[in-house]
Design brief:
heterodimer; A: 208 residues; alpha+beta; Ubiquitin-like (UB roll); Fumarate Reductase Iron-sulfur Protein, Chain B, domain 2; 3 domains; 9 helices; 5 strands; 39% helix; 11% strand; flat; B: 532 residues; Flavocytochrome C3, Chain A, domain 1; five-stranded antiparallel sheet; binds flavin-adenine dinucleotide; binds FE2/S2 (inorganic) cluster
Chain lengths: 208, 532
Amino acid sequence: MVSIDIMGKTYEVPDDLTILQALWYVGHKTIRGVGCLGGFCGACSTVYRLPDEGYKLHVGLACQTNVIDGMSLAQIPFFPSKDTTIYAETVKNEEELLLEVYPDTQKCISCGVCNRVCPQNLNVMGYVLKANNGEFQTTVNWSFDCINCGLCAMKCPADISPNLIARYVRRQYALLSLQPSRLLATRIEEIRKGKYDDAWRELFADLG
Amino acid sequence: MTRGENSSPIWDSIRRIAETREQRLQRQDVPLPAVDKETMLHRYHPDYVEDYFAVLQVGPNKGARVAKEIAAVLESPTILPSELQPFTPQHKADVLVIGGGGAGITAAIFAHDAGANVLLVTKLRLGDSNTIMAQGGVQVAIGADDSPIDHFQDAFAGGGKTSDPHLLRFLVEKGPEAIVWLEKIGVIFSKDENGEFLLRKAGGTTHPRVIFAKDYTGLEITRNLIDELRKRDVRVVEMMPTVELLTDEAGRCTGAVLMDYDNGRYTAVQAKTTILATGGSGRLHMAGFPTSNHYGATGDGLVMAYRAGAEVRDMDSFQYHPTGVIYPPQMYGLLVTEAIRSEGGQLVNDRGKRFVNETETRDFVAASIIRECREGRGVTVESGDCGVWLDIPVIEKVKGSNYLKKRFPAMFRQFQRFGWDIRKHPVLVYPTLHYQNGGLVIDGSGETAVRNLFAVGEVAGGIHGHNRLMGNSLLEIFTFGRHVGVVAARRAQETPFGALTLQHLEAFTAAPRWAGVRSPILLPNYVRKESA
Ligand SMILES: Cc1cc2nc3c(=O)[nH]c(=O)nc-3n(C[C@H](O)[C@H](O)[C@H](O)COP(=O)(O)OP(=O)(O)OC[C@H]3O[C@@H](n4cnc5c(N)ncnc54)[C@H](O)[C@@H]3O)c2cc1C
Ligand code: FES
C-alpha cells in the first residue's frame, strides 16, 4: 500500500493502481476527468507534487500514471483556451494567418517546460519554433501523436497553447498540401461506371 | 526500469518464456487440437456458454436470446423520475444527434450541410468515444487487384453469412467516397513516398486493405471531425447524457430527455428527426469480461430505442478481442492490437509453449486462450485473473531492434509509462470485450422501426452479422454517418414537431426480474464496494 493525497484528503491505496483506479478505490464516482481510459483522449490531465521535492509540479494522465507514495494530486479536466477554425485559402497566406489567429506562436521563450510535461514525450517547443519558421511539415510530424490534453498550455510561461497551434498547422498543412490518393479515385470511378454491376447481380442472385 | 523483478510466480513464468524464445524463433504451425474448430468455439467461446444468456420477456424482441447484461438493461425500469411530465422543450432542432463519436459527428456535419438546424448532445466531452481509441485502421478496397466484391465477400464470410447483404453492399460501395471525404477535410493517413496509402492486412481478409494513421487512426480522424463540426453552425451540448427518447401518440420519435451532469436537472429537446449514435456496450462487462471500450460505452442507445419500439438483432454475439491486457494490472482490459500478432508476436502458455496459430480468426484465438486457462496452462495473477503470455520481444529478434518503437509508438508508450518494456518482456493477455456485433435493426436509410428515429454506428446492427472484421466499423461510421445525416435532414423538412410523451415506457413497468437495476446505465460504477 502507498499513501496518497487526493485534493486535500489522505488515503491508503494499493501500489499497482493508476491514479484513476485509485480515485475509484477510495470512492470517487468520476464523471469529468475521464474519457477513453487508454491514453488517447486527454480528458484525465492531473497535476501532482511529490514529497521532498519542494516546488516541483508534475503532470500526467490519470489513466496512464501509476500512484506514487506520498504524491499529492488534483485533476484538471478542463483548461480554457482560445480556439480557432479559420484556415488560409492559399499556401502564401498560411504563415501570415497562423500569426494572426495564434499570435502567441511568436512569444515562445524557448524555456522547454512544455517538453518536460508532455505525457507523449513530444518535442513541443521544437514544433512551436518550427511553426514559427513556417516549417509546417516538421510541425506536422513532430506533433502528430498529440492527444490534446492541454498540459503544455497549462505550464507555458508565455501563455502559448502549443496543442492548438499544432492542430491548426496540421489541418492547414493537410488542407493545402496533401495529394489525394490516385488508387482511391480510380476505384470510385470504376464503381460509378458500373464495372462491378454484373458481379453484384450474380452475387445477389446467389444470395437469393 | 522494470517493476520489481523478483521470484514471484509471475517472474518465474516470464523467465520460462525468455528461455524458450530462441527455440520458438522459427514460428511453425502448431498442430490443431484434437477437436475441430466448431467444437472448440462451442466449448470455450463465451458466445456459446448458455449461462451467459437470457430470453427477453418484454418489448419488441420478446422471446429473443440476448446476453444477460443486455437483458437486464433492456427490461429494467427507467432512471427518469415520473413527475417530469408534461414536457416543455428547452431546445428545438430539425435534427437531434445523440452521441459525440465518429458516427454522431459525421451525421451532424452532413445533416447540417443538407440544410438542417442541428443539435448534437453527448454524454462526456465531444470526441470521448470508442472512435478516438481505434488504432488498427479502416478497411477500404483500393488495391489494384482488390475490389468491392472481394471486400463484401470477406466481410460476409467473416460475419458467418448473417449480415444484411444490402447494408453491407452499401458499405463497400460507398466506403471509398467516405475516405475521399476524410482526406479532403484534412485527415493525414500514413502513405508511401508516392503519396499512396500504406495497406495492412486484417485477420480473415483476402487482400491488404487496411489504411491507417500510424497507430493513432481514430485520434487523427476524430480531431479533424471535431474541428469540421466546430466550423459549422451546429449547437453542441457536452456532459449531458440522453436518458430517454420522447414519442408522440402515433409512436413516432419526437425528441429526447437529457440530464445535466452538473446539476442533475432534466431538459427536453424537441426534434423533427433523431439520430442515435451512442456506440457500443463493452462497459456492461458481459459475462464479467474486461473491456477495451471507452468509459461511456454502456449501451444506452439500445435501451432507449428498445423502449420506444425499435428491434435489436444479434445481441447474443460480441467480439472478444483475443489479446486484452491482464498484467501489468494498470492496463487491465486495454488492447494489444492484432497487428502485433500479424508481425510475428506469439501466444505462449505458462510452460513456454505455443498453443494456437496466431493469425487464426479472433473468435478461435480467443477460445484457445480461454481453454489454456481453464485447463491449468495459464498464468494466474494476484487478483485471481488468468492469462497467457503474448511474447512481443520475439518480434525484434526477427525484425531487428527499434522496430517496435517505430511501428507501434502508442503502444510502446502505454507500456513504458508503467515501467514495462515490451522489447524485453512479454505481456499477460486474456480476451477482452471489444465490439458489439449486433445492435438496433435499421433499414437502408438507417431508420429503425420507430419512425423518425435513425441509428448509426456501433449502436446499429446488421452490417457485420455475428462477427466484425477489423477496420470495417470505422468505415461503417463514416459511410453511414454521411448517408443517415442527409436522410434525416431531408425527412425533417417534411415533418412537423410532435407531442412529447413517455407513453412508450408503460410496457416496461412489469415486475422487474433484475433486482436493483435501473437503466440506461450512463456510466459504469467502479467504486470499490467497501469504500462507498
Ligand atoms: C480500443 C478500440 C480499438 C478499435 N480499433 C478499431 C480499428 O482499428 N478499426 C475499426 O474499424 N474499428 C475499431 N474499433 C471499433 C470502432 O472504433 C468503433 O466501433 C466505432 O468507432 C464506433 O463509433 P460510434 O460513433 O458508433 O461510437 P463511439 O465512437 O463509441 O461514440 C459514441 C458516443 O456516444 C456517446 N454516448 C453514449 N451514451 C450516450 C448517452 N446516453 N447520451 C449521449 N451520448 C451518449 C459516447 O460518450 C460517445 O461519445 C476499436 C474500438 C476500440 C474500443
Ligand atoms: S481517460 Fe483518455 S487519456 Fe486518460
